Amino acid sequence: MSDISRRKFLQTTSASALLFFSGLNNTHAAPAKAYPSKKIGNIRDLKPNEPLAFNYPDEQSPCLLVKVDNETIGGVGPQKNVVSFSTLCTHMGCPLTYSKGRLVCKCHYSMFDVSRNGQTYQGLASQWVAQIVLRLDAGTGNIYAEGVEGLIYGRIGNLKLS
């Protein structure tokens, strides 16, 4: 068995990693699939703390849109208080319900803060819940889902490649 110095080890592994990651950015890779734009509702129809259910980015992905009482991270609208999240718990995929500014998992009692990007603050879930990227058309008041930040439970990617 030969001994190598720490410096030599780091030089070798750093060079290998650089070669590997530079190879990932080649022109033969499949292009990233864009998220669909989907109209969810109209800001004038939203009532505070009354969520609107919808599916995004496909029919197997339940989500909700809600107008909360305070400005939120990623919020849209004049008060930046309209947000949207996946309603699949990141722990085991149980359905989440909305209650008083948080998403609650009835299976194992994880809770997520909708004012802070869906951050986990109680329970067994170790990841934040996926937040839906929103766009507000100021002229019409229509709200559109435009993407997903975070990984929807049970998937290796949020979009189907087929």
Judging by the overall fold, what is the CATH architecture of one domain? 3-layer Sandwich
- What is the CATH top level name of one domain? Mainly Beta
Percentage of helical residues?
10-25%
CATH topology of one domain: Rieske Iron-sulfur Protein
Task: List the defining traits of the structure above.
mainly beta, three-stranded antiparallel β-sheet, 1 helix, Rieske Iron-sulfur Protein
Structural topology:
Elements: H1 6-24, E1 38-42, E2 52-55, E3 62-67, E4 82-86, E5 96-99, E6 102-105, E7 111-113, E8 119-122, E9 131-136, E10 142-149
Antiparallel strand pairs: 1-10, 2-3, 3-4, 5-6, 6-7, 7-8, 9-10
Structure explained in plain terms:
The chain has 162 residues and is mostly beta strands. It has a domain at 38-149: Rieske [2Fe-2S] iron-sulphur domain (Rieske Iron-sulfur Protein, 3-layer Sandwich), CATH 2.102.10. Helix content is 12%, strand content 30%. The chain has one helix and ten strands. It has one helix spanning 6-24, and strands at 38-42, 52-55, 62-67, 82-86, 96-99, 102-105, 111-113, 119-122, 131-136, 142-149. It has a four-stranded antiparallel β-sheet with strand order 5-6-7-8, with no helix packed on it. A three-stranded antiparallel β-sheet has the order 1-10-9, with no helix packed on it. A three-stranded antiparallel β-sheet has the order 2-3-4, with no helix packed on it. A hairpin with a 2-residue loop joins strand 5 and strand 6. The chain is globular and about 70 Å long. The termini are far apart. The model is unreliable at 17-31 (pLDDT under 50).
